[in-house]
Amino acid sequence: MRLHLVELILFATYAELRAERARSYLGLLWWIIEPAMNMGTYYLVFAVILKSGGPDYVPFLLIGLTQWQWFKSCVSHGSYSIWQHLPLARQVKLPLQVFPSVQILADTVKFLFIMLLLLVVLWISGYPPNITYFGLLPVLLAEMVFVTAATYIVAALVPLVPDLRFVIEQVLQVGLFLSGIVFSLDGLPDWLRRWFILNPIVELVDAGRGILMRAQWPDWYALGRVALISLALYAFGTFLITRLTPRYVKLPT
Amino acid sequence: MSEPIIRLENVGVAFNAQLRVGAPLFWALEDVSLDLARGDRLGVVGRNGSGKSTLLRTIAGIITPDRGRLKRAPVSCQLLSLTLGFLPHLSGRDNAVLSGLMLGMRRREIMQRLPAILEFSELGDFFHQPISSYSTGMTMRLGFSVAMQVEPDVLLIDEVLSVGDTEFQQKSGAALRERIHSGTTVVFVSHGDAQIKQVCDRALWIEHGRSMMHGPVDAVLAAYHAAPSPPAPPLAGS
User: Fold this and answer.
1) Could you tell me the pLDDT band of residue B112, with boundaries at 50, 70 and 90?
2) Over 70: is that where the pLDDT of B123 sits?
3) What is the reported pLDDT for B16?
4) Rg (Cα) of chain A, in Å, rounded?
């Protein structure tokens, strides 16, 4: 990618984050409050009311939700990004990956804040830092690629089929339950589990929990497979956007 | 005459008329041919809906032709647009940087030109305020000042030759004319004969997406005004 595009993405991310601060009274505090309320809701429903899981259920849930929220907010915010910027795309020749990338970067900055907060909560609740924390880097990098890939693909399709906007939130909601975020997939029969772990989020969240709760190194083979799938999807997403760009600028306004 | 840097041969561009499966296509450009050499100043005339803006976007490389051929030397094109990508909550300065990056400038270049942008736009202390506090005229002044920092090989202008209040209109008009006459290749779309005569050395008349006449400004303008208004084109089937 040409350097001025990297500069454009970084500066536009800064602009996006400033916009969020300007659009509410509490500004940056919402970066923390909103996910905290979200986690509180799931905690209330699944831990307190339904009494799911065992003794480790709270960290299990919090880690899963943190990693899931990153994916979810990128896909759901990023899905609109090209569609919203069509008037701009008609004015200036730009690679349109710029727009979802800005959204992904902005949501990733917010994710890093939540991640820090999560670590503090875990340390306080008796899950101290350990040597396998170094394994977090490849896990989060792989998740970053997967998140980017998924966001690109959705963002590429929404301008052509704006109706997808009404479906995405529902699909993400189902995705939350199918990704082993609120309940463990261990109880599933083997044949079913084999299908579930095709979902990269399942492996990534599993690896995250292993590191943070049990000082367990990631399953490198599984992580490598997730990284490869994610890279392939990323290439596909980039291809889709590039290929469809001539059609976007001709869509009715 | 030097080798053309941009050449359109029987170019056609179709749009989807509606967002619906099987919606008919609308051919905004049917059959346009033109040659643009370095330093040319081409005026484009035509009635509303004749495809002038689509033609500019095609030359800029934003729209790809659906038929015909478009040949382009490696040149940079800028479609002159004010307030490109401006965001209301950002300061004038930050918007200038964002807009400059979108126009293909490097951040360092823009930083070096910020003083010039500030001076030309006459925004003073407002430069560091969010542009949501600006009047329309102020936003336009900022947009124009940023757009003028880019030095493209081919400048594409859709109607706008000057912006703002009377005083700034003279200033911006003068700056743009200076740019045009400094050897930049220009394609200028306008309804104003006087402006076309002043700016351009050649003219192209298009009607319903077809090039009707291409040649000396006076001859093309005379033919354009002599022609009766043609009926509206039919929607082509998909």
Assistant:
1) very high
2) yes
3) 79
4) 19
Whether B119 and B184 share a structural domain: no
Q: Which residues in A lie closer than 8 A to residue B80 (C-beta atoms)?
A: none
How many cross-chain Cβ pairs, A to B, lie less than 8 Å apart? 71
- Alpha-carbon separation of residue A9 from A1, A22, A99, B98, B102 (angstroms): 11, 20, 8, 10, 10
- How many residues appear in chain A? 253
Q: Which CA distances in Å does B111 have to B93, B107, B119, B122?
A: 10, 6, 14, 17
Query: For chain B, how many structural domains are there in total?
Result: 2
Residue with tokens 């760009």: A245
Side-chain half-sphere CA neighbours of A97 within 13 A: 20
Structural domain containing residue B33: 1-76+156-238
Contact list in B for residue A251 (CB cut-off 8 A) is 15-16, 19
**Least CB–CB distance from A8: residue in B62, B102, B130:** B102
- Smallest Cα distance from B79 to chain A, Å: 7
Instruction: Please tell me what DSSP assigns to residue A180.
Output: T
Question: Is A23 near chain B, with CB under 8 Å?
Answer: yes
* DSSP conformation class of B228: P
With CB atoms and an 8 Å threshold, state whether B63 touches A93: no
- Sign of the Cα torsion A48, A53, A54, A59 reads negative
**Nearest CA to CA, how far is B204 from chain A (Å)?**
22
The answer to whether A88 contacts chain B (CB < 8 Å) is: yes
Q: Do B141 and B164 have their domain in common?
A: no
For residue B49, what is the domain's CATH number? 3.40.50.300
Q: Model confidence over B14-26: pLDDT tens digits?
A: 887 777 777 788 8
User: B188 forms bridges with which residues in the sheet?
Assistant: B43, B157
Give the span between the Cα atoms of B201 and B17, in whole angstroms: 35
pLDDT in tens, A78-125: 999 999 999 999 989 999 999 999 999 999 999 999 999 999 999 998
Q: Residue B82: inside a domain, yes or no?
A: no
Are B89 and A4 inside 8 Å of each other by CB?
no
Entry pTM:
0.90
Residues B25 and B132 in one domain: no
Select the more confidently predicted residue: A241 or B227.
Answer: A241
Using the 3D structure, point to which of B123, B151, B179 is the last residue of a domain: B151
Largest separation between any pair of C-alpha atoms in chain A:
57
Chain B within 8 Å of A15 (Cβ-Cβ)? yes
| pLDDT at A40 exceeding the cut of 70 | yes
Residue B158 phi/psi, 5-degree rounding, is -105, 95
Residue B18 has its nearest CB partner, among A11, A89, A252, at: A252
Question: Does residue B69 lie within any of the structural domains?
Answer: yes
